[in-house]
Amino acid sequence: MNYLFIIMHDIGRRYGCYGNSQIVTPNIDKLAEESVRFNNHYCQFPLCGPSRANIFSGLRPLFTERFDNEAFFPKFREALKKQRGMDLKTLPELFKENGYETFGAGLVFHDVDDPLSWSKGFFRPELPKLPEGLPKSMRVFNENSPNPWVNRDSFDLITIRMENLKKMGIPDEEIFTPSGLRKVKGPPVESGEVDDSIYFDGQTTERIVRYIREVNEQRPFFIAAGFTAAHLPWNSPSKYWDLYDRESLERPENREPPLGTTDWAMGDSEPAQYYTQHGYEKPWLANREQSLELMHGYYAAISYIDTMVGRLIDALKEKGLYDDTAIILVSDHGFHTAEHGYWGKHNLWDKSLEVPLLIRVPTSANISENINVVPGPRSNGLTEHVDIFPTLCDMAGIEPPGYLQGNSLLPLMKEPQASGQGGKEAVFSHRKHQWHDRIKAYSVAHSVRAEEYRYSVYLDNKENIIYEELFDYKNDPFESRNLARDSSYRIKCIQLRNLIDKKLKEDREKWQY
After folding, report:
1. Which of 500, 435, 506, 512 is nearest to 468 (CA)?
2. Contact indicator for 358, 31 with CB cutoff of 8 Å
3. For 305-361, what is each residue's pLDDT tens digit?
4. SS3 state at 354
5. Inter-residue long-range contacts of 363-369, CB under 8 Å, 24+ positions, other chains counted
6. CA distance readout (Å), 331 to 14, 143, 228
7. How many other CB atoms are there within 10 angstroms of residue 425's CB atom?
8. pLDDT for the residue 182
9. Are 279 and 436 contacting, i.e. CB atoms less than 8 angstroms apart?
10. Cα–Cα distance, 286 to 293 (Å, whole number)
11. Of 15, 212, 320, 429, whose Cβ has the fewest other Cβ atoms within 10 Å?
12. What is the pLDDT of residues 78-109, one digit of tens each?
């Protein structure tokens, strides 16, 4: 059995198959019909790099200590060997060592290249050509952007913003620094009159399709496809914008911060970097027009990705490999789209942590490899990112590394409609302040999702509690009120905090951190 692992940027449960009637995602929805759809899957950390480290190492954030997007896997592998005598294997690396061809393209690890993981190399898309007449120095703005701009008016905005800084007496050498470049970004969204292949995800798709057409069918493969279009700025070809009428889009009902929360619990709003030049340095919330523009761009980007997923599936079918290929579709973490009036992921509220997960096991594997997965139905059991690594090992019959910190989901996949069957009592997430956080109020925060509740506790550097949150989703599905100070919920807070303390204690004793 082959494996196609598709990972997205910044997409929560937004697809049509998860009940979103506004979005156009026919290919992913069709894939969901043939897959086990996990309805209660969560990430460990609401940031790209740390979350991907959890997926591809099978280790939790407090063990990896990857709390930012800096280079990680090569130095982490070396540190584990030196300090603990552990031989870290990334997920594709383990498959490679068990006879699979491994190939990656796009943005997978959110890291520097990791040659040990890829027997057939790793493809990174090229930046598009600049609009005619622009100096080559303008390339730096696309080099520092998760998605490139291609329209002339996008670069005109960058030029205007550069001139604004110069008028303030800021020299070029300061503008062209990482912090300076954040003050001269292009627009948050772009509708490009270009072919799909001009933006990153189109290039990623073309390269993987070529690999599939040329693949050596004598060996199984593991392909990792990393799509970036759903990460700000939301830039995609105009035909995907044409799928939507902006004024018909509906904003979420809960557009106010939860009652009883602090002003720093929400976190920084990511589009502030694109709508303003002060970035995260001042508070910013989107107004109605900005929210509709953002929603239009976000949905267009997801529809663009959906088409790319469809092309990968078509390539497998044309090659006669679809019936022999398992497909995993997931995102690094969730994202708020105006819930609580917020756009972003920099908090421990449910929309930042909820993640779509589809696992398709082909019928041939059910027969020849006796996996016996029930396709199509949903799974309501609680699951988390560290469970993905052992699940794929279980599916492939590969001995998993002894250090993995998650559980295989295969038992749950065999009886997906049995609520809680194979799922967990609780799943855990964490957050530490990022360099850009406007208010740095805590040292570390831990969060647990259990039953119909989410409880989060924020600690200072001496592990004293400075703030708590509790949401009851059965009675308050929109997180309208923080119940941590409600006396009738005090026992529930204690019970959930005890779950966190128990998990932290168990992991620290077992893993010595």
Report:
1. 500
2. yes
3. 999 999 999 999 999 999 999 999 999 999 999 999 999 999 999 999 999 999 999
4. strand
5. 363/323, 364/1, 364/323, 364/324, 365/1, 365/324, 365/326, 365/395, 369/1, 369/397
6. 11, 23, 10
7. 10
8. 87
9. yes
10. 10
11. 320
12. 999 999 999 999 999 999 999 999 999 999 99
Q: Is 257 helix (H, G, I), strand (E, B) or coil?
A: coil
3-state secondary structure of 328: strand
Number of H helices, E strands in the chain: 18, 17
Cα angle 35, 54, 29; round to 5: 20
Token duo for residue 28: 């992913």
pLDDT exceeds 70 at position 367: no
Query: pLDDT tens digits, residue range 164-213?
Result: 999 999 998 888 888 888 899 999 999 999 999 999 999 999 999 999 99
Q: How far is CA 156 from CA 151, 185, 186, 271, 463, in A?
A: 9, 11, 8, 19, 48
User: Phi and psi of 37, rounded to 5°?
Assistant: -100, 120
Asked if residue 420 lies in contact with residue 52, where contact means CB atoms within 8 angstroms, the answer is no
Task: Tell the burial category of 324 from Cβ atoms under 10 Å away from its Cβ (0-12, 13-18, 19+).
Answer: middle
Are 479 and 342 in contact by the 8 Å Cβ rule? The answer is: no
Task: Determine the Cα–Cα distance for residues 96 and 124; give it in Å rounded to an integer.
Answer: 20
The burial class, CB within 10 Å (0-12 / 13-18 / 19+), for 160 is exposed
CA gap 400, 103 in Å, rounded: 20
Tokens of 67: 């709390």
The amino acid that residue 393 corresponds to is C
R_g over Cα of the chain: 22
